[in-house]
Amino acid sequence: MRTSICRTHRTLTATAASLMALTFAVPALAQQVPPEVQAKIDAMQAQIDAQQAQLNALKSQIATQYNAPAPAAAPVAVAAAPAKPAPPAVAATLKNGSPGLASSDGAFTFNVKGLFQADAATYNQDDNLPAAVSARDLNSGTNIRRARVIFNGKMFSDFDYNLTFDFGGAGAEDVGRVHEAWIQYSGFKSAKFRVGEFGPSVGLADAGSQSGSPFLERASSAEIARNFAGGDTRMGVAAFNAKDRYLWSVALTGNTVSSLNTAASGFNVVNNDEQLGVAARIAGTPIKGKNSLVHVGLNYSGIINPADTGAAAATRYPVQLRDRPELRVDGTRLVDSGAINAASAAATGVELGAQYKNLFVQSEAFDYRIERLNAATGVTNPKFTGWYVEGGWVLTGESRKYNTATAAFDGVTPAANFDPSSGHWGAFELVARYSTLDLNYHDTAALTADRVLGGQQDITALGLNWQLNPGVRFIFQGQSVKVDRLNAAGAQIGQDYTTFAVRSQFGF
After folding, report:
1. Structural domain boundaries enclosing 445
2. What is the C-alpha to C-alpha distance for residues 47 and 44, in angstroms, rounded to an integer?
3. Per-residue pLDDT at 297
4. Is residue 63 one of the residues assigned to a domain?
5. Of 7, 122, 346, 458, which sits 20 to 30 A from 245 (CA to CA)?
């Protein structure tokens, strides 16, 4: 293109030069030129003007051609870098006073909860106590039953966690400890799996929330059953699943993480070193309607390998059944089987419960069996029994919640929170319980080694629960306690007394 333009430019330039030379010569010859020749000259002049105009246009074109910027290169497609997804937003929550954080996708949560329970009680003992127990003075006073700080939540969608510290205790026991520390995988539909320090579910009373319990303490029969292979601060692994109408659970448990300091009560500490146990439960609601339900269940707590306290111990593999009389302001145990050298032990329980609107009732019966280790001739394996029945009536019309995740009854949520200016006073519930525990076995046997003189305990309890709002509650409870127990010499060391106790509770 450029070559053609340059060639044309040279041709036009030469032609124009010739014509211009001729033009300058024309005036000199004008007087000598004939008309017809002049006409031709004029035509040539017009042609020169046209050529000049064409030449100017060509120069402009050439200047534009040489001075124009080079055309931009065609854009090259470049793959865009994948954008990094923005981290999910985090929202703060405050449900019933419990602060928490949660990611917008729900994969991560973090919650802070607390539970504080302070008990005060007075013990009214008989003036004429048997000589064998006259020095046993049950002390009225106060006790910080529970003072727990709880951190729990979820991470990476399918992992749940819990870390609980407890700064409460019964008397001199258990003050300041890690109460729970576990992680749980919940990604399978068929089962959840938990490992760490926790108390596996053993029975109806054990599965219920202690923040919503009808009474200050569980019935003694249920408390003893849970301590075979469950109870607080127990290490273990568990698998469980809960649906709308049923629950199953099984756990393999080991030793307790922290031992109890019971020196103030005069009892030796039971070492749980090398203990191996199993806890299992199945429960459900065969009848469940809008305002009613029926609960049934079976539970098992067994010691496969009892704790080894060492060759120097008086009882190397002890299993000991004992409990306080369903109140822990004074930590004295009035019924106690003593340490039995055991190869294994088991507690089996039957559960029954029912609810109709604002009425509920629940009951459990337990059978305890111990297989002695290297028993002497004529010495048999002891067995014991215990049971309770309790119920409640919510005066203000609310109902206790049945928690399908635990297959147990939880507390009462007021229809209207405490607000005297609006005429709202919260929820009131009347409760009653009768419990019995028999830790005597062959108490009149001729062979002393075959006897177990643990005693029989019967307790009748009445109470009023005042739930001001979901976080604040007061319990007023009276008890009548009867203990029948003989010592080795046949003297009565049991006693009868009454108590009145108050619990102040708040949680968030």
Report:
1. 90-507
2. 5
3. 98
4. no
5. 346
Closest CA to 476 of 149, 166, 120, 234: 120
Question: What is the spatial distance between Cα 98 and Cα 131, in angstroms, rounded to a whole number?
Answer: 52
Q: Using pLDDT thresholds of 50, 70 and 90, give the confidence band for residue 110.
A: very high
**Percent of the chain scored above 90 by pLDDT?**
66
Q: Concatenated DSSP letters for 255-319?
A: EESS----GGGT-PPPP-TT-EEEEEEEEEEEEE-SSEEEEEEEEEEEEEE-----TTSSSSSEE
One-letter amino acid identity for 447? L
Q: How many domains does the chain have?
A: 1
Element housing 14 (H / E): helix 2-29
Convert 71-131 into a string of H (helix), E (strand) and C (coil): CCCCCCCCCCCCCCCCCCCEEEEEECCEEEEEECCCCCEEEEEEEEEEEEEEEEECCCCCH
Name the DSSP letter for residue 171: T
Per the domain annotation, does 459 fall within a domain?
yes
> Does the residue 50 lie in any domain?
no
The Cα–Cα gap between 86 and 84 comes to 6
Q: How many CB atoms lie within 10 A of CB 487?
A: 14
The CATH number of the domain holding residue 202 is: 2.40.160.10
Q: How far is CA 330 from CA 88, 170, 173, 297, 386, in A?
A: 52, 8, 11, 33, 22
Under 8 Å between Cβ of 168 and 147: yes
pLDDT for residue 60: 72
Lowest mean pLDDT among 17-21, 199-203, 208-212, 363-367: 17-21
Q: What is the mean pLDDT of the chain?
A: 86
Neighbours of 76 (CB within 10 A): 5
Closest CA to 180 of 256, 254, 247: 256
| Residue type at position 454 | G
With respect to residue 203, please indicate whether it lies within any of the assigned structural domains: yes
Per the CB < 8 A criterion, the answer to whether 136 and 492 are in contact is no
> Can you give the C-alpha Rg of the chain in angstroms?
47
